[in-house]
Amino acid sequence: MPISDSPAHDVYAAACPCRDMLDLLANKWSAMILGALEDGPQRFGSLRARLEGVSPKVLTQTLRRLEQHALIEREVFAEVPPRVEYSLTRLGRDANLPLLGLRRWVEENIHRFPASTE
């Protein structure tokens, strides 16, 4: 049974376009980028410093994907050198709300999970 009231969208159905959005939003870097942008626009270098462990390649790919799905916007300023800032769109702010709850829940409950064997 679909989660939403719309019979046309069922995230459990293989052909449902909702799966792509779920995949994007469930990605750890996507969730952390949206969270990092909740305080306002940031440049690439600031995001990279805030998101310890992300490679420039993965950060670039994730930012592009978030922009393609209208969750963030990229603004280029006509300066020398060019300055680029990333910010949440309204859709991105809306998507960030449940992710904020998830991030907080993980931080508050991490001690309840068995230690990783990796």
Summarize this structure briefly.
With about 120 residues, this protein is mainly α. Helices cover about 50% and strands about 10% of the residues. It has 5 helices and 2 strands; from the N terminus they run ααααββα.
Throw out a few tags for this protein.
49% helix; two-stranded antiparallel sheet; mainly alpha; 118 residues
Verbal overview:
Helices cover 49% and strands 10% of the residues. With 118 residues, it is mainly alpha-helical. The protein has a single domain (22-105), classed as Orthogonal Bundle (Arc Repressor Mutant, subunit A). It has a two-stranded antiparallel ribbon with strand order 1-2. The radius of gyration is 16 Å and the shape is globular.
Count of helical regions: 5
- Structural class by helix and strand composition: mainly alpha
Largest sheet features: 2 strands, antiparallel
Report the helical percentage.
40-55%
Rg over C-alpha atoms, rounded to the nearest angstrom: 16 Å
The coarse overall form would be globular
The tally of strands reads: 2
Secondary structure topology:
Layout: H1 18-26, H2 28-36, H3 44-50, H4 56-68, E1 72-77, E2 83-88, H5 90-109
Antiparallel strand pairs: 1-2
Helix pairs in contact: 2-5
